[in-house]
Amino acid sequence: MQKRARGNRAEELVAQYLAEQGMTVLDRNRTIRGGELDIVCTEKDTLVVVEVRSVDHIDDLHEYMTPQKMSHLFHTIEAYILAHNRQSLVRLDVVFVQQNSILEWYKNVTNT
């Protein structure tokens, strides 16, 4: 339960930050086809899916996003796009949070 609460706080922090950056938050914690998308928003004409990772250490942030996790995210994003009949460009961002502070925001981690 404590881990989920920490994740919720991190997602709230990131959602507020994205809104301050001019993005429009459409969905949070959207479960679709067994996967979950932390934050779905738009920036101009682009649908942006944001994976929020609350981390304890900053030694190697890349270890938190495994190929298996990325593959699972891609399938969930595809299901979301089909379910919502989205025709826009899609971008996947990853935001790392540590102790209520945004550490890194990686934009467009793939060319989806």
Characterise this structure:
This protein is of the alpha+beta class and 112 residues long. It has one domain: Trna Endonuclease, Chain: A, domain 1, CATH 3.40.1350. The chain has helices spanning 2-20, 67-84; strands spanning 24-32, 35-43, 46-54, 89-98, 101-106. Strands 1-2-3-4-5 form a 5-stranded mixed beta sheet.
Sheet with most strands: strand arrangement: 1-2-3-4-5
Percent range of helical residues: 25-40%
Low-confidence stretches: none
Rg from alpha-carbon coordinates: 13 Å
- Span between termini: 33 Å
Q: Helices and strands in order, then pairings?
A:
Layout lengths: L1 H19 L3 E9 L2 E9 L2 E9 L12 H18 L4 E10 L2 E6 L6
Parallel strand pairs: 3-4
Antiparallel strand pairs: 1-2, 2-3, 4-5
Question: What attributes does this structure have?
Answer:
single chain, 112 residues, alpha+beta, 38% strand
